[in-house]
Structures are given as structure tokens and as C-alpha cells.
């Protein structure tokens, strides 16, 4: 059981782990051991997630989320399979915790008069700088 919060826990049956060979340092040993971990979690089909959290997870623009709604996390940060496994599980928990709090609604605001004036003054100064760079033909 992977505990996300006091109300959300993911059973092991919903987590699919695959072990593969990692690239990077390790000498000949790296060619024989499968220390990298790929964790798959079906967000769209998980009965453990509340509907609002599932919706927020699926709406995230995350390249690790497939078109079918499966979250794929790869871990190859460490040389040890156990540490990589713990790492991907912790990253999954952090992703889900990131959507537990609903995003705040944006309040429409208007720029102040002073900020508008500062912007216009800055534009005028910039235009003068650019104008001073141009060559003016001699009037003779």
C-alpha cells in the first residue's frame, strides 16, 4: 500500500513496475543488471483516486502521461534497483500530492495608472534611443 495522504492510499495491484537495464556508469556490471525502474500507474482507471483528483491529474500537461491516461515514471538515478524503485514511488506520491490542493481562481485585475504611465515613458525613452542611432542626412 502506497500512502499519498490520510485519505488516499494506492494498493500495490494498481502499480505496474518493470525493470530494465540502465545506461551510465557501472562498467560491465551495468550490462548484466536491470537496475532501472519504470513505474506505470493508470490514473484514468484507478478506483483509489477521488474523481476531482483524477480529473486534475489528467488535465496536467505532463509528457509522462500517455493518451490512455497512464502515468509512466522512469527511475535510473541510482545504481541500485531498490533505491530507484523507492525514488519512482516517491515521485509518484509527489505528483499526486501536487494536485491535492485545488488551484486558486485567478482574479481579473487592471493595471494601475502609474504602471501604465511608467510603461509609456519607458517606450518613449526606448524609441528615442533607437532614433538617436539612425544617421540623419546632412542638410546642405
Automatic annotation (TrEMBL):
One of its GO terms (molecular function) is peptidyl-tRNA hydrolase activity. One of its GO terms (biological process) is rescue of stalled ribosome. This is Prokaryotic-type class I peptide chain release factors domain-containing protein. InterPro entries: Pep_chain_release_fac_I. Residues 106-140 are annotated as: Disordered. PANTHER family: PEPTIDYL-TRNA HYDROLASE ARFB. NCBIfam families: PRK09256.1 (NF006718). Residues 21-37 form the Prokaryotic-type class I peptide chain release factors domain.
